[in-house]
Amino acid sequence: MGERFSRRSPRWRPFASATLSLESQRYAVRALRAAFTWLVDVRYLAGNPWKAVNDPKIVQRETAMQIHRALPADLWRRLRSELDKRCSEEGVSKAGVQWRIVRAALLLMGDSGLRREEAADAQRAKLRVSIYGTLERPVWELTVIGKRNKERTVPVSVATLEALQAHWSDRGRDFMVPTDLLNPSAPLLSPVAIPRTLASQVKHHQRSNEGEQGYSADGINRLISRMLTIIVETMDDLSLDERVILGSVNAHAMRHTFGTQSVADEVPVDVVQKVLGHASLQTTSIYVQAEKKRVLEEVAAYYARRADSGAGSRN
Which parts of 42-170 fold into alpha helices (H)? Predict the structure, then answer.
């Protein structure tokens, strides 16, 4: 309910406040209209006054997604190599266990384009060998529940499978056994050491009876941010710009990394759309536009270098 405020307080006039964006105003109006519609439906009110209130007009932004946080291809490759190195060097220590969880989570999102909520809810029973692979080259696929409660199936890379196997080994589980009779919905990602906070203890106190509990979406995000901060501070051969990029990376940035890298590698846009679960091809085309922009910028820089080199030789 919150703290009480005087009727003269600007908190009673949120739509008159310059700090509330048009997007937020439109969202508030729609939420209020929906609430009053329900009140009318259950006959608590005779009419809905918000029907007479129009939505504020806003400019639809062409690029609402913050895809600039996606990792460049070279930095993504080097990060993966650094994660492999740390997972190996730390061995069976607590730090090694944490690095292997982070590696599995990053690859699951960076190679399969999952949202952090989808990665948190992903189940082992939903990961299987696809019928479209071969004995020499099997293809794995994972079925997840995405936005708007829509089910979709995404490919899973060999590197992701190997990372998940290592994580499951830390959990004392056999990853190649697809289901567990005691817990058929075993999560792909699960904490190995439970924090001593009250909330964590309450959530995981029934592990032994009901099987393992997975991460929350926020939990995965916090873990990734914490471990990437360590990498930013300790990884060798990182430029200042690269440290800034890694320092701003969150879990969702790995989904954007998949989008930008797959488009750059000339994966058909409709295929990228299906993997990412976009309702509209126009949303996926943002990655195409970003890649086109990057190509033009790189070529422009190349032209500039050639011009400078030519000017120097003439002098």
Answer: 73-90, 94-112, 116-121, 158-170
